[in-house]
Task: structure prediction
Amino acid sequence: MLSTSLLNDVMRSIGLDNFTLSPRFKPLIDNTSIQGKAFTILGKETHNLSDHETLVLWTKFIDSIPKNSIAVCQSNSDKYAIMGDLSAETLKRNGVLGYIVDGGCRDISAIKKLNFPVFYFFNTPEDVVGRWIPEKLNEPITVSGVEISNNDLIVADSDGIIVIPSNKIQEVKDRYKKMVNDEDLVRNGIKEGLSSYESYMKYKKF
Result:
């Protein structure tokens, strides 16, 4: 599992920027770490459809999220829970790795018992039924000002969420391995008695 903190350093070192999602995101379960390819969802609030119509769209959307992916939803809503326990139950059964939404979540205790990873903005009991629909799937979205496309690599942990563009994944991973080795040299130097300054001057890494 890659570390978002080290990924931040790696991606900056190769000239990338604007890849970290908002610090408003919080893991529903403490110390959650997930990593996988993005499956993107764009949604919107609506008040022109019946409860039945919105639930048909919602359930089809939940069933469409592929195994071993991380669902990333641009909700365009600051009112409603865009994840609940029955949906989380379905996603876990279907082998989805996690769900990230710039909106609300409900049924918090039940989802915690499921141990299904969710990263989200706020708790609310307000449901999406008759109020919100998934509008587009598998198309580029923008979350927290970061553009996310299908198959970008998502890494989320206790420090935050990072998006690696699909065309940069291998380069980032290769550079990541080197930086891990460099940090290990610094760490060992500190354990052996070097000061922070001495470690930095010796290895040019800190």
User: Anything to note?
Assistant: The chain has a mean pLDDT of 95. Residues 169-191 form the longest helix (23 residues). The two ends are 21 Å apart (CA to CA). The helical segments are 4-13, 51-64, 85-93, 108-114, 169-191, 196-203.
